[in-house]
């Protein structure tokens, strides 16, 4: 049976950065879709460079636990895995629709199905909505609510903003929420001014980040005015300019993200059996990963 590798960034500074990768890997292991499920990291061990040597299977599905198509998914991971013949053009993507490419890891001779990142998969929209349900405690949340999908934004990678706008538009198309807005930390429209973009009295803010860290735990809460000092904490919901802000924290911590990882592998040809159904049953309405 093929193996699954979940490729995440990790961090030397934030010990909780790896929590989503380990939590989602455990969920997928429990569903029995793969004999082997491995986590690999850029900033932690096991590393991208060494992970294929820890896998017995000759066929491996690699799914990047990243938000957007860019430097890490297009350059770092393929390079570190030594994927022979890799060319980002093979994804034939406009920045939000990378699928998969089958290549050989030349140093270990394994067949690798290299998938697009979870952050641009269409099912990530469901995870964003699930995150809103989790933070409000309301499985029917939507009417009377606005929702903001928040990303970093950067001039260095236009795809960073594309992923945020893509999912904001998909949420908008469902018609579930009264208002939907894509907001950013480092470009317009900025999350600092979140209340200016909504008329609704209740707004759910969902950061499209994989893990809770400096940006999601410190920058965004302070920028939105939830607190003057993140170390003092804040209420959920918190009142800002007569608007109740329901701050959800990083979308990657939502348990349902394990479903997206499995879907990426299934899209690339993995026979996951009934694992998708099992994962959905276990993660719908459950606590966020790492909680």
Automatic annotation (TrEMBL):
GO terms for biological process: cobalamin biosynthetic process. The keyword Cell membrane does not apply. This is Cobalamin (Vitamin B12) biosynthesis CbiX protein. Pfam families: CbiX. One of its GO terms (molecular function) is lyase activity. It comes from the Archaea. Keywords: Cobalamin biosynthesis, Cobalt, Lyase, Metal-binding.
């Amino acid at each position: 049976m093929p193996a699954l590798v979940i490729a995440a960034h990790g961090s030397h500074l934030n010990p909780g950065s790896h929590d989503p990768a380990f939590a989602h890997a455990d969920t997928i292991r429990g569903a029995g879709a793969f004999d082997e499920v491995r986590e690999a990291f850029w900033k932690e061990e096991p590393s991208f460079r060494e992970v294929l040597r820890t896998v017995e299977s000759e066929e491996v599905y690699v799914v990047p636990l990243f938000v957007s198509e860019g430097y890490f998914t297009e350059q770092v991971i393929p390079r570190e895995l030594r994927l022979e013949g890799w060319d980002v053009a093979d994804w034939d993507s406009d920045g939000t629709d990378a699928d998969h490419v089958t290549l050989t890891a030349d140093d270990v001779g394994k067949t690798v199905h290299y998938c697009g990142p979870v952050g641009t998969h269409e099912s990530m929209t469901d995870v964003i909505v699930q995150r809103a349900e989790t933070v409000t405690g309301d499985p029917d949340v939507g009417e009377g609510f606005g929702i903001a999908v928040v990303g970093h934004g950067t001039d260095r990678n236009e795809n960073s903003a594309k992923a945020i706008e893509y999912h904001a538009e998909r949420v908008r198309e469902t018609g579930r929420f009264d208002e939907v807005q894509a907001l950013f930390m480092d470009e317009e429209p900025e999350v600092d001014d979140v209340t200016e973009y909504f008329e609704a009295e209740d707004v759910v803010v969902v950061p499209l980040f994989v893990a809770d860290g400096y940006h999601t735990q410190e920058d965004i809460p302070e920028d939105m005015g939830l607190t003057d000092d993140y170390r003092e904490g804040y209420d959920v919901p918190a009142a800002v300019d007569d608007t109740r802000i329901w701050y959800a924290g990083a979308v990657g911590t939502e348990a349902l993200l394990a479903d997206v990882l499995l879907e990426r592998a299934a899209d690339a040809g993995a026979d996951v059996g009934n694992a998708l159904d099992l994962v959905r049953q276990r993660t719908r309405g459950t606590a966020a990963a790492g909680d």
